[in-house]
């Protein structure tokens, strides 16, 4: 196949600054330590991290025709990502976010929805998009055109062609389950945060959330639990909890995307379940140690070393 993975969905330019303790009054200035630009989003952040981890990646999303689009595409290419399936849409801005990162890692955001609201994957692109063993759809909830029946058609086609489907979402609310539920029968690995899983399932414990989502069709659930680590549940009865790494957190932006990239990389390398969760956790921990959605991740080997050497939080 042409690629190891196709990353479909939300592509954003993030502008991040830290540490931000307050927004200055009037036209005054506050000085901070660091400002970064990154390619982010539940597909964009994931594809950059997966490329850094050594995967041959196809980016499938949309940008505008503005200066932000130029930077996003150039940066994807710099990381070795194939951008031939990225769409440049006239008349709309590239999706972008300003993130004011607080000293504790919280990140209040100002977001322009932009091009991702207008993105779709027409059937004429299917042969290109599905020429990979793993298909990741990331960003459901902020993909106004693709959300709903178009996503169901897309994922059903991916499964018809024998692809493994991984899935993540963003910006859940009480109505998101109506978008997600028809997709679940086509999803092999559903990878939301525990907060998102609770919103979707109406349950509280990780296992109860997973049971509801698997009963609706998902083959397996992989939840990020923040400081409590990660949780895996499979329809075959497999259950596994993986503790978090004990690190100093700088910025939590993109940690879920990095976890997804790590888990997808583990699938590519056919790692066992415990190692897959640890590798995904290490990917997220590296990102949390710096500013932005790709901070800390350098290579597959470096991440594998981090997996084996970073301290683990006590049970």
Task: Please identify the top-level CATH class.
Answer: Alpha Beta
Mean pLDDT over the residues: 95
Query: Which ranges are low-confidence, i.e. pLDDT below 50, for 5 or more consecutive residues?
Result: none
Biggest sheet architecture: 5 strands, parallel
CATH architecture: 3-Layer(aba) Sandwich
Largest sheet strand order = 4-1-9-10-11
In whole angstroms, the N-to-C terminal distance is 42 Å
Walk me through the topology:
Blueprint: E1 5-9, E2 12-18, E3 34-40, H1 44-52, E4 57-60, E5 62-63, H2 67-78, E6 87-88, E7 96-100, E8 109-112, H3 126-129, E9 134-140, H4 149-160, E10 164-169, H5 176-180, E11 189-190, H6 194-201, H7 206-215, E12 220-224, E13 230-234, E14 239-242, H8 255-268, H9 273-288, H10 300-309
Parallel strand pairs: 1-4, 1-9, 2-7, 5-6, 9-10, 10-11
Antiparallel strand pairs: 2-3, 7-8, 12-13, 13-14
How does this structure look, described?
The chain is an alpha/beta fold. The protein has one domain: UDP-N-acetylmuramoyl-L-alanine:D-glutamate ligase (3-Layer(aba) Sandwich), CATH 3.40.1190.20. The chain is built from 10 helices and 14 strands. The chain has helices at 44-52, 67-78, 126-129, 149-160, 176-180, 194-201, 206-215, 255-268, 273-288, 300-309; strands at residues 5-9, 12-18, 34-40, 57-60, 62-63, 87-88, 96-100, 109-112, 134-140, 164-169, 189-190, 220-224, 230-234, 239-242. A 5-stranded parallel beta sheet has the order 4-1-9-10-11, with helices on both faces. A 4-stranded mixed beta sheet has the order 3-2-7-8. It has a 3-stranded antiparallel beta sheet with strand order 12-13-14, sandwiched between helices. A hairpin with a 5-residue loop joins strand 12 (220-224) and strand 13 (230-234). Helix 6 packs across helix 7, helix 8 packs antiparallel against helix 9 (273-288) and helix 9 packs across helix 10. The longest helix has 16 residues, at 273-288. The termini are far apart.
């Amino acid at each position: 196949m042409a690629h190891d993975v196709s990353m479909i969905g939300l592509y954003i330019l993030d502008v991040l600054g830290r540490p931000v303790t307050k927004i200055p009054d009037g036209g005054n200035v506050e000085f901070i330590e660091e400002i970064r630009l990154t390619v982010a989003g539940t597909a964009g952040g994931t594809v950059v991290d997966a490329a850094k981890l050594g995967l041959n990646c196809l980016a499938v999303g949309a940008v505008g025709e503005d200066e932000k689009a130029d930077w996003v595409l150039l940066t994807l290419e710099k990381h070795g990502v194939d951008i031939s399936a990225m769409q440049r849409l006239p008349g709309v801005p590239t999706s972008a976010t300003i993130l004011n990162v607080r000293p504790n890692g919280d990140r209040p955001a100002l977001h322009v929805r932009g091009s991702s609201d207008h993105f779709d994957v027409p059937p004429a692109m299917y042969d290109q998009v599905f020429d990979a063993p793993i298909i990741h759809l990331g960003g459901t909830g902020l993909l106004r055109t693709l959300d709903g029946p178009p996503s169901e058609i897309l994922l059903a086609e991916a499964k018809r062609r024998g692809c493994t489907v991984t899935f993540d979402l963003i910006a859940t609310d009480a109505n998101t389950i109506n978008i997600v539920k028809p997709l679940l029968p086509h999803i092999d690995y559903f990878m939301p945060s525990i907060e998102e899983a609770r919103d979707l399932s109406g349950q509280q414990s990780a296992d109860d959330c997973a049971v509801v989502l698997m009963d609706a069709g998902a083959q397996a659930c992989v939840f990020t639990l923040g400081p409590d680590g990660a949780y895996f549940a499979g329809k075959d009865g497999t259950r596994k909890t993986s503790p978090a790494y004990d690190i100093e957190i700088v910025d939590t932006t993109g940690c879920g995307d990095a976890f997804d990239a790590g888990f997808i990389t583990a699938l590519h390398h056919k790692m066992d379940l415990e190692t897959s969760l640890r590798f995904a956790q290490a990917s997220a921990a590296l990102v949390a140690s710096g500013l932005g959605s790709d901070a800390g991740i350098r290579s597959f080997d470096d991440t594998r070393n981090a997996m084996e050497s970073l301290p683990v939080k006590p049970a």
